[in-house]
């Protein structure tokens, strides 16, 4: 098995590791069709971050879409109940518009979804799996953690309308303290709320340190529940060395129409964007007419990950064997099969392409293999 893994590209090896991790924790592979009816996505287009959808008309005249998302299809097809959850992982391609080149791209994703009743342990398990996945990619990684319940509770307690709330959230996301100061004055927030808002914007350190800070910001029950979620998560995971790479960061926000609990993103060295993104999305299930269920999960974006995993092609072989018209092909075949059965990588050809490198070079002289110098 190790010899087989060595022949895989780094990204393929990591995908194999992810699959092994998920299955050891009881997650089963979810397989889906490449297409969904376009109408299915039109009801939840804002969940797709306003990305256009690649469509085509099938033979029956029905408008279909190449899937831009996996989570929605899993929720649509789930058989989970509160007492009988589904633990699923997927390895699928999605089709989205690239912001850089303004054309559709096929993006390979691996992710997992837990659908049922999300307990404190469920949150621990999913965050732990996200940390394990990041550790497989690069030893230098960070998992940023936020909580939409804490942010939502805070904004429920201050006198701003929805437009003003969105503007303030934009400042939190960008950590723009200068603009935040201006808006605090413009919206006539009192000194105490203004101070608390600036503390919230400055959250961005270790879980232990930042939990102490946000404990002093709690204004209502919603914030208290969110704080207890975060504290419980840390109390369990702090025993795990991986948790040292967790950071609390309230600049991580997302759409409240879908997400209501933990929100998290993973980063590795040398990649400026998040390569892992996830959260608890009970509100999506409510909108999809499954109000008795809860869900949490994450996805890993291999298009971003490939930037850190680029490596030269493995064109190195244990043996390169040349043959010509005078070579005995039966003997050549037997020699090659014997070498490969013994775990060797063998390249056979009439000539040696420039990129091919061999540890040993041979030529078939009629019915025997002779070592040669190149």
From TrEMBL:
GO MF annotation terms: glycosyltransferase activity
Domain Class II Histidinyl-tRNA synthetase (HisRS)-like catalytic core residue range list: 7-304
InterPro entries per UniProt: aa-tRNA-synth_II/BPL/LPL (IPR045864), HisRS-like_core (IPR041715), HisRS/HisZ (IPR004516)
Cellular compartments per GO CC: cytoplasm
Keyword vocabulary terms for this entry: Glycosyltransferase, Transferase
Entry annotated with the keyword Nucleus: no
Lineage: superkingdom: Bacteria
Binding site for L-histidine: 69-71, 96, 109, 113, 258-259
Cited Pfam families: tRNA-synt_His
Entry protein name: ATP phosphoribosyltransferase regulatory subunit HisZ
Organism this protein belongs to: Flexilinea flocculi
């Amino acid at each position: 098995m190790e010899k087989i893994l060595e022949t895989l590209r780094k990204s393929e090896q990591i995908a194999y590791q992810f699959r092994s991790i998920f299955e050891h924790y009881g997650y089963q592979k979810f397989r889906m069709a490449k297409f969904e009816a376009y109408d299915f996505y039109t009801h939840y287009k804002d969940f797709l971050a306003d990305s256009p959808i690649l469509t085509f008309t099938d033979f029956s005249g029905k408008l279909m879409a190449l899937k831009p998302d996996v989570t929605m299809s899993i929720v649509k097809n789930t058989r989970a109940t509160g007492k009988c959850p589904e633990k699923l992982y997927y390895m699928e391609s999605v089709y989205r518009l690239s912001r850089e080149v303004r054309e559709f791209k096929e993006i390979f994703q691996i992710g997992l979804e837990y659908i049922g009743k999300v307990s404190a342990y469920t949150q621990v398990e999913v965050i732990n799996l996200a940390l394990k996945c990041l550790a497989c990619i690069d030893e230098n990684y960070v998992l940023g953690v936020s909580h939409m319940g804490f942010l939502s509770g805070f904004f429920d307690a201050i006198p701003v309308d929805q437009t003003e709330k969105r503007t303030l959230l934009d400042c939190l996301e960008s950590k723009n303290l200068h603009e935040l100061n201006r808006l605090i004055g413009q919206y006539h927030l009192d000194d105490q709320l203004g101070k608390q808002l600036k503390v919230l914007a400055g959250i961005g350190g270790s879980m232990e340190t930042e939990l102490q800070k946000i404990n002093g910001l709690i204004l209502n029950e919603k914030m208290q529940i969110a704080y207890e979620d975060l504290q419980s998560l840390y109390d369990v995971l702090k025993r795990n060395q991986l948790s040292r790479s967790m950071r609390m960061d309230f600049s991580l926000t997302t759409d409240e129409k879908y997400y209501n609990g933990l929100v998290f993103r993973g980063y590795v060295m040398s990649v400026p964007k998040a390569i892992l993104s996830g959260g608890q999305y009970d509100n999506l299930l409510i909108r999809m007419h499954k109000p008795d269920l809860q869900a949490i999960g994450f996805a890993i974006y291999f298009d971003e990950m490939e930037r850190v995993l680029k490596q030269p092609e493995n064109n190195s072989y244990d043996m390169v064997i040349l043959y010509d018209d005078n070579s005995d092909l039966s003997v050549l075949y037997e020699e090659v099969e014997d070498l490969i059965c013994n775990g060797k990588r063998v390249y056979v050809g009439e000539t040696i392409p420039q990129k091919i490198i061999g540890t040993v070079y041979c030529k078939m002289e009629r019915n025997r293999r002779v070592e040669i110098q190149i």
